[in-house]
């Protein structure tokens, strides 16, 4: 399938896909992915604040639960290869999706029976951490499921857009609606309700379609001593594969242990034993990425070169002689082959892809932590005004952007939509730059378009209309960019290795924003918000340039560009 994604243009393709059971479950799974993220990494802090017993330092370490999302790729190989007894009958992906959703539901429900206090903070943080870990695990498998089940009707572009819609709706439910319920009931009731909702979603997932597991294997070899065809003539020598596997496993193992130890120490109730989270992220974060992405990618590139040059290859079949040989083959299939597949298809273009992944979402990700200080402190809006503008109206604008992104993906193609999304996501930072200088331009647009009049009829004032106009512009642009970016990432991973490859790439999108927030905060203190928004606009334009380069590369090389996911075999509409 070409970059146009669907043979039927525009809304006809979208409407045809919306009738599929796969698309309906994609919306449900998107909701299931967004709800625990909002509850554990957002709303939970409001509960801790209301308790009156938890200090700010303790609440600060709770943000480290988010590391589960940043480093979810570390356990993604297990999700690609390990089956759960009994539940494996549900399907390769569904077994993990349903299990994760039930664990999340159980963890949220359990939280509702614990009042946060200095005495209970240990078990409270353990349950919150369990919910975050299960949520990150669910994300890995849902991303893989989306790639696996895509076909010519429910295309990867449409499924990606629907996923984003479900995710954003969940953010509204787990954020604004949860706060609304808490104001009228209490926090235990909120988390009991949300936990029950996740349990319902988990049971509903039992009837979701799943990809044929046999279609996801790299080879069709049924030999139990060589299930992946790694020991045939022309394949890399087992000794070479064993050494490369050992190196990659050692690096990933070190990263997993390092992050695990850090999180356990950080969630300790004793403040004296807590490590410095800022120091860890700024020093160990880059080292972990180098150890788990950069060096393994270089090893994979070297293996690809060995294979293509005909060096260190088997001249005759060498079947596995022991259980240790078979275990090495399984681990090599899980850890190394996803990387060699990616490097083998993309080649040097992998550098462009990584640069694009690192920079594409930076404009909205890096300053997101400072949004509320900007609205409340710098612009002096009230909490109610910010809630209306960002939580209710803002989410609505985001959904409009996602719908527009889904339409553009089918109407004008993935790469053009990706490029436009990057441009507008960067350019809308200028709206906030204008607000930082008083907002004369945004106010004029709101007044002349009639938007100020509309807001005033609903009980607002011109100042609120100005904020809502800026948030609407940014969120529509971010919606288009988000739909296009998820579709792009899904398009460059292989169905046989989708869990590991997507988890690796999507985790990188969190890196620059996380590492750059400290420097951005210092820049705000020293130079003010206006200069920051000009800087983020310029950084975003760098992503636009990378999009154009990648677009040209794909157009010139066609199928040889290494974009394989859209080549999904057509399946009958359900």
UniProtKB/TrEMBL annotation:
Top-rank taxon: Bacteria
Pfam families linked to this entry: MFS_1 (PF07690)
Signal peptide coordinates: none
InterPro entries: AmpG_permease/AT-1, MFS, MFS_trans_sf
Keywords: Membrane, Transmembrane, Transmembrane helix, Transport
Topological relation to the membrane, as annotated: Multi-pass membrane protein
GO molecular function, one term: transmembrane transporter activity
Cellular compartments annotated: Membrane
Membrane-spanning ranges: 25-47, 59-75, 96-115, 121-145, 165-182, 188-208, 240-264, 284-304, 346-372, 392-409, 416-433, 467-490, 502-520, 532-552
GO cellular component terms, A-Z: membrane
NCBIfam families: 2A0125
Family label: Belongs to the major facilitator superfamily.
Name this polypeptide is given: MFS transporter
Species, as recorded: Parerythrobacter jejuensis
């Amino acid at each position: 399938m070409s970059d146009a994604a669907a043979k039927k243009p525009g809304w006809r393709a979208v409407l045809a896909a919306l009738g599929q059971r796969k698309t309906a479950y994609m919306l449900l799974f998107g909701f299931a992915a967004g709800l625990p993220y909002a509850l554990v990494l957002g709303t939970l802090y409001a509960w801790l604040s209301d308790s009156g017993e938890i200090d700010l330092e303790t609440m600060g370490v709770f943000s480290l639960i988010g590391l589960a999302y940043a480093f979810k790729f570390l356990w993604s190989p297990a999700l690609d290869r390990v089956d759960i007894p009994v539940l494996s009958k549900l399907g390769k992906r569904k077994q993990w999706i349903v299990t994760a959703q039930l664990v999340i539901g159980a963890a949220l429900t359990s939280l509702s029976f614990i009042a946060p206090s200095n005495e209970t903070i240990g078990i409270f943080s353990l349950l919150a951490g369990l919910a975050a870990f299960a949520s990150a695990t669910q994300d890995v498998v849902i991303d893989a499921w989306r790639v696996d089940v895509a076909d010519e009707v429910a295309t990867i572009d449409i499924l990606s857009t629907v996923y984003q819609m479900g995710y954003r709706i969940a953010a509204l439910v787990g954020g604004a609606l949860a706060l609304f319920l808490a104001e009228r009931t209490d926090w235990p009731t909120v988390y009991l309700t949300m936990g029950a909702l996740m349990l319902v979603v988990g049971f509903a997932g039992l009837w979701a379609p799943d990809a044929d597991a046999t279609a996801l294997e790299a080879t069709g070899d049924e030999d139990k001593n060589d299930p992946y065809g790694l020991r045939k003539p022309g394949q890399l020598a087992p000794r070479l594969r064993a050494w490369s596997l050992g190196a990659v496993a050692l690096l990933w193992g070190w990263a997993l242990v390092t992050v695990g130890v850090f999180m356990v120490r950080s969630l300790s109730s004793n403040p004296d034993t807590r490590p410095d989270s800022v120091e860890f992220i700024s020093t160990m974060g880059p080292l972990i990425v180098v150890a788990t992405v950069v060096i393994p990618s270089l090893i994979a590139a070297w293996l690809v070169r060995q294979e293509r040059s005909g060096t260190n290859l088997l001249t005759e079949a060498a079947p596995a002689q022991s259980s240790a040989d078979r275990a090495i083959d399984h681990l090599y299939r899980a850890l190394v082959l996803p990387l060699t597949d990616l490097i083998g298809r993309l080649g040097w273009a992998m550098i462009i892809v990584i640069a694009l992944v690192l920079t594409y979402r930076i404009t909205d990700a890096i300053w997101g932590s400072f949004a509320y200080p900007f609205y409340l402190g710098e612009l002096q809006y009230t909490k109610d005004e910010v809630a209306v503008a960002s939580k209710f109206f803002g989410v609505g604008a985001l959904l409009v952007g996602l719908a527009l992104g889904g339409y553009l993906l089918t109407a004008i193609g993935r790469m053009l939509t990706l490029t436009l999304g990057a441009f507008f996501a960067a350019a809308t930072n200028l709206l906030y730059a204008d607000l930082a200088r008083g907002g004369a331009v945004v106010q004029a647009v709101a007044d002349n378009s009639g938007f100020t009049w509309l807001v005033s009829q609903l009980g607002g004032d011109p100042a609120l209309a100005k904020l809502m106009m800026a948030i609407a512009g940014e969120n529509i642009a971010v919606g288009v960019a988000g739909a296009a970016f998820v579709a792009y990432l899904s398009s460059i991973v292989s169905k046989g290795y989708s869990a590991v490859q997507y988890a690796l790439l999507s985790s990188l999108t969190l890196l620059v924003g996380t590492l750059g927030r400290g420097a951005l905060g210092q820049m705000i203190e020293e130079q003010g918000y206006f200069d920051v928004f000009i800087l983020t606009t310029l950084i975003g334009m760098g992503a636009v340039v990378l999009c154009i380069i990648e677009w040209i590369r794909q157009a010139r090389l066609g199928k040889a560009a290494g974009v394989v996911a859209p080549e999904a075999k057509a399946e009958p509409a359900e």
